[in-house]
Amino acid sequence: MALMPIFALMQFTSQIVEQAVEALSSFPGIGKRTALRLVMYLMNRPEIEVTHLADALIKLKTELHLCKRCGTVSDQEYCDICRDPRRDETLICVVEDFSDLMAIEATAQFKGTYHVLGGLISPMEGIGPSDLNIEAILQRVKEEGPKEVILALSATVEGDTTLYYVAKKLNEFDVVVSNIARGISVGGELEYVDEITLGRSLLQRTQYTIN
Amino acid sequence: MALMPIFALMQFTSQIVEQAVEALSSFPGIGKRTALRLVMYLMNRPEIEVTHLADALIKLKTELHLCKRCGTVSDQEYCDICRDPRRDETLICVVEDFSDLMAIEATAQFKGTYHVLGGLISPMEGIGPSDLNIEAILQRVKEEGPKEVILALSATVEGDTTLYYVAKKLNEFDVVVSNIARGISVGGELEYVDEITLGRSLLQRTQYTIN
After folding, report:
1. What is the per-residue pLDDT for B192?
2. Quick count: other Cβ atoms within 10 Å of Cβ B158?
3. How far apart are the first and last CA of chain A?
4. How close is the nearest chain A Cα to the Cα of B194, in Å?
5. Residue B192 burial by CB count (10 A; 0-12/13-18/19+): exposed, middle or buried?
6. Structure confidence at residue A51 (pLDDT)
7. Which of B153, B202, B147 is nearest to B177 (CA)?
8. What residues have CB less than 8 Å from A2, skipping those under 6 apart?
C-alpha cells in the first residue's frame, strides 16, 4: 500500500469495489483515498461483521424515531429520558441536536428533560424558525408548565440568533428562561483566552463566596 | 454540534444510533466522535442512498472474486486486465495488492499483465511466503513462459524481503526478473533527499544521452 493511486486516473478492476469506494467517499471528510482504505479493510473482515455494519446503517433510516415529546432520536415513540420517572419534568433544556444532548448528559450535571430543535436558525443556509422544532417547545411549555427553560446553544452567530428568537417566544409564558454561562474554559490560561470571551467573563462575573 | 460529547460517558438515547456508531468506529482511523458525525450525516440522507451504501458494502463480501489468473479483485472469474487482448502477456508486474495495481495503472506506463501477492512477507506480523500468492506466480511463469517479470514492491524491509524471496524463486526459470527503479522522486530537491536514497541513486545512475 505504499504506492498510492493517483486518483485522477483511478482505474478499478472491479465495479463492486468502485461502487463501495464511491458510496463511502460521499461521507463528509472521507475522500476516495480513505474510502479505498476502508474498502480494503472491509474486504478482509468476516462477512458477518460487514452484514452487521450494513444492517446498522439501514436501521438508521428504517427504525429510528424522533421522540414525540422532545424530538431526540429514539428507538421508541418516546425516548428513554422522557420515559424516565426520575427526570425533573419542571426543567427543560433546549439543545440544537442529539449530540449536544449527549454532551450535556455526559456532564452528569443535568437531571431535567430536553428539547431538541434539530438545528439552528441560519439565514445563510436558508434555515428559518419554521424549519426547526420551535413550535413544539412553545406548545410543551403551554401544556406542561415547567419552571425553567435552559437554552444550551452554541456560542455562534446562529446559536445567538436562535437563542434570541426562542427566548423572545418563551417570554410570553410564565417560565424562567436561562442561558448557559459563557466564560473562560476550565483549565484555560487567561493570556490565551480570546478578548470577546474574556470581556464577557468579566461582565458576567459571579460572586465568589467562601462558605 | 459545537458542544461535543465526552465519550467516556457516552450515553445514547437510541440503541440503533449506538450500534451504528459502534459499527462505524470499528474502521481503522475512525473514532467514536467521527462515527457519530457520520451517523448524523446518514440520518439526514434519503433512505435510498443509505440502502445503496449498505448494499455496496455487503457486495464486497458476497460478490467479489479474486481473478483466477492474477489474483486481483474482480467482478468475474477473470479480471478486466487479464481478459483484455491488448495487454502484453509476456510482461508480468508483481504487486502487493490491488491498490498498488491501481497506482501503476494510473501511470499509464504499463501495458502488461499483473500478479497480486496479497501482502508482503513479514515475520513481525507472522506472514510467511505460504500465506501469499507466490506459488501461483511461479506456476504462471512455468505455464505462460513470459519474457520478463517486473517486481514492483514497496521500498520497505517487508518489500525487500519479498523481492529477494520471489526473485530467487523466479531465477529457476528462463525469465528476466527486474525491480522498479529506486532513486530521487521527480520534483525532489537534492538537499532534502535522505542519504540512503541518494546513495542508491548514485550507484544505480543511468547513462544520459542527448539524441
Report:
1. 81
2. 19
3. 63
4. 17
5. exposed
6. 93
7. B147
8. B96, B100, B154, B155, B156, B159
Q: What are phi and psi of B141, to 5 degrees?
A: -65, -40
Asked if B106 and B112 touch (Cβ cutoff 8 Å), the reply is no
3-state DSSP call for residue B106? helix
Give CA–CA dist A148/A94, Å, rounded: 11
Domains of chain A: 7-62 (1.10.8.420), 73-180 (3.40.1360.10)
Chain A residue nearest residue B60, CA to CA = A43
What count of other Cβ atoms lies within 10 Å of the Cβ of residue A208? 5
Shortest CB distance from B13 goes to which of A8, A30, A74? A74
pTM: 0.72
Give the span between the Cα atoms of B206 and A68, in whole angstroms. Answer: 74
Q: Do B20 and A80 touch (CB under 8 A)?
A: no
Mean pLDDT of A10-18: 83
Residues of chain B with pLDDT under 50: 1-6
Q: Tell me whether residues B50 and A27 touch, CB distance under 8 A.
A: no
The predicted pLDDT at position A181 comes to: 86
Confidence (pLDDT) at B145: 93
Q: How far apart are CA B79 and CA A18, in angstroms?
A: 14
Using the predicted structure, report yes or no on whether residue A142 has a pLDDT greater than 90. Answer: yes
β-partners of residue B91 are: B148
Cβ–Cβ below 8 Å for A6 and B154: no
Q: Which residue has the cell 413550535?
A: A135
Q: What is the pLDDT of residues A101-138, one digit of tens each?
A: 988 888 888 899 999 999 999 999 999 999 999 999 99
**Would you say A94 and A151 are in contact if contact means Cβ atoms under 8 Å apart?**
yes
Which residue, A174, A94, A98, A97, is CA-closest to A134? Answer: A94
Residue bearing cell 425533573:
A88
**Does the complex come out with an ipTM higher than 0.85?**
no
Q: Min CA distance, B176 vs chain A (Å)?
A: 23
